[in-house]
Amino acid sequence: MAKNVLVLADVRNGKLRNVTFEMLAAANQIADGGQVAAVLLGSGVEGLAEGLGDAGADTVYVVDAPELEKYTPSAYRKAFLEAHNDFGSDVLLLAHSAVGKDLAPVVAMRLSAGQVSDIVGFDMEGGDIVFTRPIYAGKAFTKVKVTDGIVIATVRPNNLPAPESGFGKSGTVKKLAVSFEQADLTTVVKEIIKKTTTGVDLTEAKIIVSGGRGVKSADGFQPLRELADVLGAAVGASRGACDAGYCDYSMQIGQTGKVVTPDLYIACGISGAIQHLAGMSNSKVIVAINKDPEAPIFQVADYGIVGDLFEVVPMLTEEFKKVLA
Ligand code: FAD
C-alpha cells in the first residue's frame, strides 16, 4: 500500500549526518510507490537541499529561518508540522539523535500518532511496517507495529543500510515561510557548550577506539588518540574512565551513555560490564585489549589481545601506519 514518507534531515554543524541518507533509503522502501520528502530545518540550510533528490527525496521542504538556528522543541515542532500538513505524510522518520529523540514525541502527541523509538531495522508485511528495536539494554530485540493512523519512528544511526546507488529523484525544493509567534518561541537557547574535542562523531563513527579505567589517567588516553588518528576513528570511553575523571562524560558509551554500532570497536582496558556492553555489543567487529584473560569483554570480542594496553596500542598504531601509509 503506497505511503507518503517524510524524513527530517539530521543536520549537525551545518552538515547532513549520514543517518539522513539511511532514512531516505528506508523511506523509499516503505513508500511502496508513494512519495518521499525530506525536511530541512535551520538557518542557512537551504544549500543542503542539493543532492537530496539523488538520495531519494521527491520533494525537499526547506524552512530556513533565524528562529531555527538552534534547536528548540516548540519552533521545530511548528516548522516540521507545517511540512507534514503540506505533504500529507503517513509515516515520519527522524534520527534517534539528540534532536530526533526530543522532537518525535512532541510531534507524535500533536498528531495522535503511534511512535516507535530507536529502530534498528524493519520489514514490510502486508502493507504494515514491522519495526525491530532493542530492549533490555540491547540483550534482546522486539518487533513492533503501529496498527492504526500516522506512524512516527526514530532511527538509530549506522543500522539501516545506506543506499548503494543514487535514486535519481527530482528533489524539488519547496520553501515554506513559517511565521513564528511568541508562543512558538517559549524556549530560548542562550549558548551551546561543546564538550567533545575529537572531529569524528561517536554515534556515526565507523571505527571507535575506546578506553576504560585501565588507561589509568587522562594522559593514558593519548596512545588511544594516536591510534584513532591513524584509523580516522572516534575516541570513546567506559563510565569507569569518565567517573575517574580521565575524560569527559560526552565520550561515555553504554546504557547511560551513547549507543554505538561501528564497523570496528577497539576496547582498551575495559572490563566489559553489562552496562558498557549495552552501548557497543552490536558493533560489527569487536577487538578487546585487556591484561586480565578472564575479563568479561573477551566473551563478546571477535578478537582478544591479552596484554598491557600501553604496549599493545602503540604497536597497533605503528603497524596500521605501515599498512595505511
Ligand atoms: P573496570 O571495570 O575497572 O575495568 C578496567 C579494566 O581494565 C579491567 O578489566 C583491567 O583488567 C583492565 N586493565 C587495567 N590496566 C590495564 C592495562 N594496563 N592494560 C590492559 N588492560 C588493563 N558503564 C559504562 O561503561 N557505560 C554506561 O553507560 C554505564 N552505565 C551504568 C548505569 C548504571 C545504572 C550502573 C549501576 C553502572 C553503569 N556503568 C556504565 C558502570 C559499569 O557497571 C562499570 O562499572 C564500568 O563500565 C566499568 O568501567 P571499566 O571497564 O572502564 O572499569
UniProtKB/TrEMBL annotation:
<feature type="domain" description="Electron transfer flavoprotein alpha/beta-subunit N-terminal">
    <location>
        <begin position="5"/>
        <end position="189"/>
    </location>
</feature>
<dbReference type="InterPro" id="IPR014729">
    <property type="entry name" value="Rossmann-like_a/b/a_fold"/>
</dbReference>
<comment type="similarity">
    <text>Belongs to the ETF alpha-subunit/FixB family.</text>
</comment>
<keyword id="KW-0274">FAD</keyword>
<dbReference type="InterPro" id="IPR001308">
    <property type="entry name" value="ETF_a/FixB"/>
</dbReference>
<dbReference type="InterPro" id="IPR029035">
    <property type="entry name" value="DHS-like_NAD/FAD-binding_dom"/>
</dbReference>
<keyword id="KW-0249">Electron transport</keyword>
<dbReference type="InterPro" id="IPR018206">
    <property type="entry name" value="ETF_asu_C_CS"/>
</dbReference>
<dbReference type="InterPro" id="IPR014730">
    <property type="entry name" value="ETF_a/b_N"/>
</dbReference>
<keyword id="KW-0813">Transport</keyword>
<dbReference type="Pfam" id="PF01012">
    <property type="entry name" value="ETF"/>
</dbReference>
<dbReference type="Pfam" id="PF00766">
    <property type="entry name" value="ETF_alpha"/>
</dbReference>
<dbReference type="InterPro" id="IPR014731">
    <property type="entry name" value="ETF_asu_C"/>
</dbReference>
<keyword id="KW-0285">Flavoprotein</keyword>
<dbReference type="InterPro" id="IPR033947">
    <property type="entry name" value="ETF_alpha_N"/>
</dbReference>
<protein>
    <submittedName>
        <fullName>Electron transfer flavoprotein alpha subunit</fullName>
    </submittedName>
</protein>
